[in-house]
Amino acid sequence: MPKSYRVAILGATGAVGTELIELLEHRNFPLSQLKLLASPRSAGQTIPFRGESLTVEAVADGCFKDVDLVLASAGGSTSKQWLPQAVEAGAVAIDNSSAYRMDPQVPLVVPEVNPEAAFDHQGIIANPNCTTILMAVAIYPLHQVQRIRRIVVSTYQSASGAGARAMEELKTQAQAILNGEDATPSVLPYPLAFNLFPHNSPISEGGYCQEEMKMVNETRKIFNEPELAITATCVRVPVLRAHSEAINLEFEQPFSRARACEILSTAPGVVLQENWQSNYFPMPMDADGRDEVLVGRIRQDISHPCGLELWLSGDQIRKGAALNAVQIAELLSRESGDASSPSLSSSSVQR
């Protein structure tokens, strides 16, 4: 029988935290205790889990005592403040923020790509950015067969990437515009309803925004390809949930569309969705709530003999965040079922 773990969710009332709770129940993760942690303003809320009603607690000193695993989804500053305390208390933390992703001492893991990296941790394991995860799941099976030399990606990112409040703002703005009223933004910097704009994360001197550089740097780390040529353009679009990406790949050698379809049709975490007769390919409305990344419209790049084009849609709250974190936890729990491999216990933390 598998061991049962004492789990804490940091940021339990947010969009990703809510999804984490649902996934732990749906996937029957082996836990004996679930502690829900959030900011003081959310403390006291109750959330159902496995037939019980759990009360959200305010994160505070000492709250990680007797916790084996922390799933964190409360933002970078919160992770920086609290996860060292969790590790010191003996827990392993899987962090969904950007706080530790590029730390050379912290593994950055997509289970379909580099599962072995999850076991080389010092107490914290980082979950990549949502757009990075979706792209990695879709293109790594091709990279394994024929090395990718260059990636050009454009993302079409939904409101849910900015959280539950941004989703509600999009709904409110759409209704306001339909009523002939002004759409006033408060969560996002500009109106998103019936509009789109380049991702609003901070822009560097080179002209790339933070979101774009996450895709560049994180993909290189996950693939263990520090010189891989990548360029990204990230755009926020008026979609409630699920991101889409247009990806151009340049390989070292020609790569046929037929071979790519064959590989992706059996790739883990991928569903090949193509209906050329109906011009029907992956869409956010199909990806919403799905665990898999939907990939389609695979075609030869007519501008380059070694190029392929593909299109994907994926639920960035699910596979792009919560599901990826739970899959990492499942990796650790399966390995630690072997008494000789205590990957999910304080004894595995190297201090």
From TrEMBL:
Domain Semialdehyde dehydrogenase NAD-binding: 6-121
Residues the record lists as binding phosphate: R101
Molecular functions (GO terms): aspartate-semialdehyde dehydrogenase activity
Alphabetical list of CDD domains matching this protein: ASADH_C_bac_euk_like, VcASADH2_like_N
Binding site for NADP(+): T13, G14, A15, V16, R41, S42, S160, G161, Q316
Residues noted as binding substrate in the record, renumbered to the chain: Q157, R236
Pathway: Amino-acid biosynthesis; L-lysine biosynthesis via DAP pathway; (S)-tetrahydrodipicolinate from L-aspartate: step 2/4; Amino-acid biosynthesis; L-threonine biosynthesis; L-threonine from L-aspartate: step 2/5; Amino-acid biosynthesis; L-methionine biosynthesis via de novo pathway; L-homoserine from L-aspartate: step 2/3
Superkingdom of origin organism: Bacteria
Cytoplasm in keyword set: no
Top-level class of the enzyme under EC nomenclature: oxidoreductase
InterPro entries reported for this sequence: Asp_semialdehyde_DH (IPR012080), Asp_semialdehyde_DH_beta (IPR005986), NAD(P)-bd_dom_sf (IPR036291), Semialdehyde_DH_NAD-bd (IPR000534), Semialdhyde_DH_dimer_dom (IPR012280)
E.C. code: 1.2.1.11
Reactions this protein catalyses: L-aspartate 4-semialdehyde + phosphate + NADP(+) = 4-phospho-L-aspartate + NADPH + H(+)
Protein keywords: Amino-acid biosynthesis, Diaminopimelate biosynthesis, Lysine biosynthesis, Methionine biosynthesis, NADP, Oxidoreductase, Threonine biosynthesis
Pfam families per the UniProt record, alphabetical: Semialdhyde_dh, Semialdhyde_dhC
Residues annotated as catalytic: C130 (acyl-thioester intermediate), H243 (proton acceptor)
Similarity field: Belongs to the aspartate-semialdehyde dehydrogenase family.
Function statement: Catalyzes the NADPH-dependent formation of L-aspartate-semialdehyde (L-ASA) by the reductive dephosphorylation of L-aspartyl-4-phosphate.
PANTHER family to which the protein is assigned, alphabetical: ASPARTATE-SEMIALDEHYDE DEHYDROGENASE, DEHYDROGENASE, PUTATIVE-RELATED
Subunit architecture: Homodimer.
Designated name of the protein: Aspartate-semialdehyde dehydrogenase
Species lineage: Bacteria, Bacillati, Cyanobacteriota, Cyanophyceae, Oscillatoriophycideae
Gene coding for it: asd
